[in-house]
Amino acid sequence: MPIFSPVGEKEVTRAIVGGFMRQFEEYTESDVIIVGGGPSGLMAGRDLAAKKVKVLIIERNNYIGGGFWIGGYLMNKVTFRAPAQETLKELGIPFEKAVEGLYVADGPHACSKLIAAACDAGVKFANMTIVDDVVLREDNRVAGAVINWTPIHALPREITCVDPVAIESKLVIDATGHDACVVKKLEERGLIKTVGFGAMWVERSEDLVVEHTGEAYPGLIVSGMAVSTLYGLPRMGPTFGAMLLSGRRAAEVALKLLKRVPVA
Amino acid sequence: MSRRFTAYLYSSAATAASVNLEQLAQYITGWLPELTIELRDGLIEFYFSKLNPDERSQAIRQLAWGFARARVRNITQPKQPFEPLPGEVDYEARRLANPASRAWGILYEGFELMHILRGLIPEAERSWYHIHIVFINQLFGTWEDSDRRYHARVSLYGLPSILSTGGIVEAPAKPREYYLLKQQYLALGMDDAPALLEARFQDRCIGHDDPRLTEVMKGYLMQALAYHFWGDPFCSDKSCRLYNAHWQEEVIAAQLKEGPDFCPAHAQRFKEGLRRLPSA
User: B85 vs A72: CB contact, 8 Å cut-off?
Assistant: First the structure.
């Protein structure tokens, strides 16, 4: 007796296409598009979705989580400075105290729990998707993203005349890490100027990323390491606590802004 | 004895945990008894205290823009004027609205910082007979032509003189082993490296909120006064509190050692005090 139901290839394909298309159509318009599915983007998405905000996270890789799977030197332990352990508790991520004020968790466990928390809260994902440009509305306000499949960018130039599509949102969060991809799109248009990395390392600079997280341009919030690139903050090592707290701050700012954003 | 000169020492909530103004005032009085000393809140809070709420809000925005514009964005280029990003101005506005907040990691142009702070000093107190010394938490630097880069500083003397509690930690170089170990720790992905190193090198370096900071700052205060009265804040004697230390170990040797505080020449100058200076 067969274990699985007798379903044919065409039904499998219909299920994939149907499910994808329904979601894609629904999310051609969302409250917040988060570009980047690393720790700060996931945290922002989870906090927003938990408040019933319609969130789509765009990720250029097929996997979600960014660099949150591993810590330094490819070792899969991730560290957090206090008070980030409070967020770990909230997400149900097991951790141990390493020394006073420093906590350590398993990278795979921490990352998968954060992804699950975002999914459980209602975040939807468009992975293998890259942002080609931003949608600008009146007064050059950021109001969405122009997207394409990631593999398109790997094709030879001669055959890359594959037009992107645009999706709209009330706000966009740039959580693309050091690349600051969305900010760079505005920079290409001369609308903003990034400062670039700060040349010096100064102790305790981690706070700066959280403190500078916020609306960098009308309709655009910057979160995580993209904040460093925009404001030229000092370089840091793997500081996942700052990424989580920056994501939280981005969500708080977004919630505040959504209350005064005109309904599309 | 006429008390012609008044020194105003400013310390905000951001530096209050690091420096004890009363102890510093007592120390100055011990060397320069003829100098009147007035302790004040931070200079910015002192300025805000004279404004109504509307004026205060407006002043916060103006000062925030000024501080954001005073940032050094590239330490290898002489600073050029730039229009600060809105997020930078917002950050400064939040910091100004909360005097206890401390700024880590941003380097400001020292002379621009001094210019901003000078504007907050009451007109009536802008003369040689009023000495303003401001403790701040922010890190500042000045451009050095000899090696074409900015250098973080502990102090900048003028109107007002600025002493940075962040600068005393970051500006004087730490022992060479510190930097070698830090490179290794960071290569291993240890993001707690600064805390570990701070503990390991605490005898050879000054740390943030170090209980020795008040003692260390006595020497920098006297440098500010020496600059004000005699035009030269520094001494070449490494054991004198007026020594311009470039290494943490030199700071400790000059400021935390046992024995006389000053070299014989400067001890004599402080003992003579302000008697030979012109009257008001």
Answer: no
- Nearest CA to B197 out of B169, B216, B171 is that of B169
Domain count, chain B: 1
Contacts of B159 (CB under 8 A, 6+ apart): B114, B118, B121, B126, B132
In this structure, what token pair is assigned to residue B211?
């209980």
Element containing residue B167 per DSSP (H, E): helix B167-170
Asked, for residue B180, whether it belongs to a domain, the answer is yes
Distance from C-alpha of A238 to C-alpha of A227, rounded to nearest angstrom = 15
Cβ A238 vs Cβ B191: under 8 Å = yes
Q: Which of A203, A209, A240, A245 to mutate to test the interface with B (most CBs of B within 10 A)?
A: A203
B46-80 pLDDT, tens digit per residue, is 999 999 999 999 999 999 999 999 999 888 899 88
Decide if B191 and A212 are in contact by the 8 Å CB cutoff: no
How many Å apart are CA B20 and CA B11, to the nearest integer?
9
- Nearest CA to A216 out of A238, A259, A236, A246 is that of A246
CA distance A166 to chain B (A): 27
B155 vs A72, more confident: B155
CATH code of the domain in which B180 resides: 3.40.390.10
For residue range A213-235, list pLDDT tens digits in order: 999 999 999 999 999 899 988 76
What's the token pair of residue B147? Answer: 């090696």
Distance separating alpha carbons of residues A80 and A110, to the nearest angstrom? 11
Number of A to B CB contacts under 8 A, please give it: 90
A212·B88 Cβ contact <8 A: yes
Using the beta-carbon criterion (under 8 Å), do A212 and B87 form an inter-chain contact? yes
Comparing A201-215, B58-72, B222-236, B243-257, which segment has the lowest mean pLDDT? A201-215
Instruction: Using the structure block, give the residue that is written with the tokens 């975002």.
Output: A118
Residues of chain A numbered 44-83 and touching chain B (CB < 8 Å):
71-73, 75, 79, 81
Domain span at B164? 6-272
Chain B CB contacts of A99 below 8 Å: 192, 195-196
**B277 in any annotated domain:** no
A192 to chain B, any CB pair closer than 8 A? The answer is yes
Residue B236, SS3?
Answer: coil
Interface contact flag, B85 A203, Cβ < 8 Å: no
Q: What is the ipTM of this complex?
A: 0.78
Distance separating alpha carbons of residues A177 and A35, to the nearest angstrom = 10
Domains, chain A, in order of start with CATH, read 29-70+122-258 (3.50.50.60)
| Residue from the list A72, A211, A232 with its beta carbon closest to the beta carbon of B190 | A72
Residue B221 C-alpha, separation from nearest chain A C-alpha, in angstroms: 25
Whose tokens are 């070698």? That residue is B180
β-pairing, A129-136 vs A142-149, is antiparallel
Could you report the per-residue pLDDT of B138-154, keeping only the tens digit for each? 999 999 999 999 999 99
Altogether, the residues listed in chain B come to a count of: 280
Residue B278 belongs to a domain: no
Query: Would B280 be classed as within a structural domain?
Result: no
